[in-house]
Design brief:
The chain is of the alpha+beta class and 162 residues long. The protein has one domain. It has helices at residues 7-26, 39-56, 124-127, 157-161; strands at 2-4, 73-75, 78-85, 92-95, 105-112, 115-123, 133-135, 140-144. A five-stranded mixed sheet has the order 1-6-5-3-2.
Length: 162
């Protein structure tokens, strides 16, 4: 399922992504991204993907800009950390400092602002197990291939029972 952010959602995402980026850098929050794209691009695509995911499930995304704090999206008592990549065969990534208790599920969205497609998700205990560590050129990180997802297909039914 592809989700396209409408014009208003795009404006909100652009403003908030820029604000989060500036606030984090001004307060000395270290940029821990694993990929090679610019930090600004990462922030905009990340926020856009979070908004698209929330839109899919009719939940409210975290629109706060508290430096260094990522709440993720909460739905039916579970927390989701939405990750994004522009690569069709991109991997689900998480920095090494992530802890299992940080969230329940990591979701991978593929696309570029303002259009995203959800491809799957993995439980935190699977992604962060230590079995999926790779170095993509910026130090080690958790990196799960799409073929390794605990749940390979995502059509929304998983959210109902999760």
């Amino acid at each position: 399922m592809v989700v396209l952010l409408n014009e208003t959602e795009q404006i909100i995402a652009k403003i908030l992504a820029e604000r989060r980026y500036k606030n984090n850098r001004a307060r000395g929050v270290v940029d821990r991204q694993i990929g090679g794209q610019s930090s600004e691009e990462t922030d905009l695509n990340g926020l856009g993907a979070e908004m698209a995911f929330a839109k899919m499930f009719n939940v409210y995304p975290d629109l706060g800009d508290v430096p260094g704090k990522e709440d993720g999206i909460t739905h039916k008592g579970y927390t989701y950390d939405v990750k994004t990549t522009k690569y069709k065969n991109g991997r689900l990534l998480a920095v090494m400092s992530k802890q299992i208790e940080d969230c329940n599920l990591y979701v991978l969205m593929i696309g570029e602002f303002p259009s995203y497609r959800i491809v799957g998700y993995a439980r935190a205990e699977d992604l962060l197990s230590g079995n999926y560590i790779d170095d993509l050129g910026r130090g080690p990180g958790h990196a799960m291939k799409q073929t390794e997802f605990a749940f390979k297909k995502f059509n929304g039914d998983e959210m109902k029972g999760t």
